[in-house]
Design a protein that fits this description.
Aldehyde Ferredoxin Oxidoreductase Protein, subunit A, domain 3, 6-stranded mixed sheet, 7-stranded mixed sheet, iron-sulfur, globular, Ald_Fedxn_OxRdtase_N, OxRdtase_Ald_Fedxn_C, Aldehyde:ferredoxin oxidoreductase, metal ion binding, 3 domains, Aldehyde Ferredoxin Oxidoreductase,  A, domain 1
């Protein structure tokens, strides 16, 4: 489609002129509000109390969402908002990982607030254009494009009848349309979804950045919780921003030298140590595929097992040698020397509507290799990359899709569903072509792929009612909680990681707490109290990245050479101090590492109470499927029989000799469920919550989140 024809077919619905607010100390104190139902655009001040209590990023998103919705609001109601916000550190170029933004909405998967972090250039450009946050509410009657020109101070909303929907095509079209020349393309960033997000509740959002060397608009994903479904339900094709003039001091920090010092130190460390540590610069997050397999933590065949003999076929060296382009800058924001945003270039597609096209694929990521690959029994790197590409361009969360497909495959192999039920697809583990066909069906909203796109929670009900499957068994093996699919780590042998998944606010996502190595491999947190302390500190610390507009990878995927000699090596104390210095250097504040945690506690507890306001957020919602805790089936038990028999004897004082596998499974189940309940008690106590998981009024006062609207939600539940 010609760009000229697209422009000519458009109708201007509204235009808004504004004076871009200057950035001072990391803030503009302004938000952009767009109501598509009213076709209105306005600029609003962000109150000082909001800045003080909610800081930025995820905090701003949750606060604005709270104000936009009611307890009865569901994801497809017009008042549901999509909020995009960076934070005070977002946009600096001296420290790696400073280009993130957070997206919040009411999730079609969980019916509560979801937050998802994303790279790309949009977050920094939004701030430089004069806004700390952007909120979109209402629903359009027509397909629309929102365009923000951050230099001239103009926002337009136009109809978009001819533009594509799929992410890789639309991002290229919008970059070409709004850039004045080839050099200007780097100043364009696009938010879009894809055709599957029209139908699938696991729809994601793509955020683009233009790669001048590859001459392609690359995509990063706000993947979790179905935000892309909300985006397409509002009939948004794209939000496009243009900002020219990016440079290192646009945040107008108070102390630039303090920021520079922290950045230089980390850049030197990455240069000297990354090649022998996590190899992020070489392969990105895919560096841990074989590590997870070696420690029995790689989810395989719907989390039944933790390793597989064919993992070597999708090990990181395979992607490095055959697919991932080396020797090119791969940061998704300026100044990131960790450069983990890897790409497979000139990859020729073998299926679907783009068959024969040569494309650039964002990846591989570990989660994609584990979810689309091993968890579905697929060990063909080309099939994994193809599924990776189609998930991105169709707007599909790769984590949820991998976990859902693995669940359906196990149900198929156990005879709970059959080929007639799947519309002729043979959903056996390892059938990568069937997995791809599910994606293509999802993009058209048809066939069994349509049901896959609605999630594991939907499938459990569907398989029971339509095909007579045993609901109790489905609940055991369906790896979702709160409606969100579990991400791609096997938590069976790590009680702390079970809590890291189950005791989250948004559902089982590893960005709150990844404690497997501390717990299972290194035995650093042996008691319930130790685990509870870790499940307080790490979720709060990681929440802070979401408040600031930071990526977490430069914190713990590269470490100082002497980190092992520190008192708390898991926290990486030198890097914690770097973040304190960054915040103080930008804002002029004088926080310490303790106040850093307190800032997060306010927002974390606010999100918990937001969940309660929406009818969720209690202890009953924190229960995990048993597959996450222990062996459900005879095959699972026998795969680790020596380990499990030893645990029965040493932990429970039960001699396994003479007992059937079924009896041993039952004993193991009772013990592990009890352990999870005891962990839950300890974590709630450490977080200042009641036994039902409700933040206490006293604790809210202590941390400074005793806002009247917050107190009114929890007071009736204090017990």
């Amino acid at each position: 489609m010609e760009i000229k024809a697209m422009k000519e077919a458009r109708t201007l619905l509204t235009a808004f002129d504004y004076e871009p607010a200057p950035v001072e100390r990391g803030y503009t104190d302004r938000a952009l509000h767009i109501n598509l139902g009213k076709t209105s655009v306005e600029q609003r001040d962000i109150p000082a109390q909001v800045r003080e209590k909610f800081i930025g990023g995820k905090g701003y998103g949750l606060r604005m969402l709270w104000d936009a919705v009611k307890p009865s609001t569901r994801w497809n109601d017009p008042e549901n908002a999509i909020v995009v916000a960076g934070g005070p550190i977002c946009g600096i170029t001296q420290y790696p990982g400073s280009g993130k933004s957070l997206v919040c909405t009411i999730s079609p998967m969980t019916d509560m607030p979801i937050d998802s972090n994303v790279g790309g250039y949009f977050g920094p450009y939004l701030k430089f254009s004069g806004f700390d946050a952007m909120e979109i509410t209402g629903k359009s009657e027509q397909e629309v494009i929102i365009f923000i020109d951050g230099n001239s101070g103009k926002v337009t909303v136009e109809t978009a009848p001819l533009e594509a929907v799929d992410g890789h095509v639309l991002a290229e079209q919008m970059t070409e349309m709004y850039a004045e020349d080839e050099e200007d393309k780097k100043n364009i960033s696009v938010i879009c979804a894809g055709t599957a997000a029209n139908y699938a509740n696991i729809g994601l959002l793509n955020f683009s950045f233009y790669d001048l060397r590859r001459q392609v608009a690359r995509l990063k994903q706000a993947g979790r919780g179905g935000i892309g479904r909300v985006f397409r339900d509002k009939k948004i094709k794209a939000v496009v921003i243009r900002y020219r003039g990016t440079k290192g001091n646009l945040n107008k920090p108070v102390d630039q030298s303090r920021i520079n010092k922290a950045g230089i130190k980390l850049h030197r460390q990455i240069h000297d140590l990354d090649a022998t540590q996590c190899r992020m610069h070489q392969i990105g997050t895919a560096n841990i595929i074989e590590v997870m397999d070696a420690y029995d933590l790689l989810p395989t065949h719907n989390y039944q097992y933790g390793s597989h003999p064919e993992t070597h076929k999708i090990a990181s060296n395979v992607f490095i040698e055959k697919y991932v382009t080396q020797g090119m800058p791969d940061g998704c924001w300026y100044g990131c020397s960790l450069s983990c945003a890897k790409a497979a270039d000139h990859f020729e597609l073998k299926t679907g509507p783009y068959k024969g096209h040569k494309v650039t694929i964002d990846g591989p990521e570990y989660e994609n290799a584990a979810g689309l690959g091993s968890n579905c029994g697929i060990f063909d790197p080309e099939l994994i990359l193809e599924a990776n590409f189609y998930c991105d361009t169709y707007g599909v969360d790769t984590i949820s899709f991998g976990t859902i497909t693995a669940f359906a495959m196990e149900c198929y192999e156990r005879g709970l569903i059959n080929r007639e039920n799947t519309g002729g697809l043979e959903l056996t583990f390892g059938n990568g072509m069937a997995q791809l066909e599910l994606l293509h069906q999802m993009s058209r909203g048809e066939g069994f792929g349509y049901h896959i796109g609605l999630g594991v929670r939907h499938l459990k009900e569907y398989f029971e009612k339509a095909f007579g499957a045993d609901r109790a068994f489905l609940e055991d093996i369906g790896m979702e909680q709160k409606g969100l699919e579990v991400s791609e780590y096997l938590p069976k042998e790590s009680l702390a990681q079970q809590g890291g998944y189950g005791l989250t606010n948004k559902g089982p996502q590893h960005d709150e707490a990844w404690l497997i190595f501390m717990d299972m491999v290194n035995n650093q947190i042996p008691t319930f109290e130790d685990k509870a302390e870790a499940l307080h500190y790490f979720p709060m610390f990681r929440t802070w990245f979401g408040l600031m507009g930071l990526c977490k990878l430069p914190w713990n995927d590269t470490t100082p050479a002497d980190n092992g000699l520190t008192d708390e090596p898991a926290k990486i104390p030198e890097h914690v101090q770097n973040y304190v210095d960054l915040y103080n250097g930008v804002t002029g504040a004088s926080i310490d590492k303790h106040e850093l945690i307190r800032q997060s506690e306010r927002v974390y507890n606010f999100q918990r109470i937001f969940n309660i306001r929406m009818g969720k957020g209690l202890r009953v919602h924190d229960a995990m499927p048993y597959r996450a805790m222990g062996p459900v089936t005879k095959e699972e038990y026998l795969s680790r029989e020596e380990r499990y028999d030893k645990q029965l004897l040493e932990l429970q004082g039960v001699d396994p000799a003479g007992k059937t596998v079924e009896e041993k499974i039952a004993l193991m189940r009772a013990y592990r469920l009890d352990q999870y309940e005891k962990l839950t008690d300890a974590v709630y106590k450490r977080r200042g919550w009641t036994a039902e998981g409700v933040p206490t009024v006293d604790y809210l006062r202590e941390i400074g989140m005793d806002l009247p609207e917050v107190i009114s939600v929890v007071t009736p539940l204090q017990g």
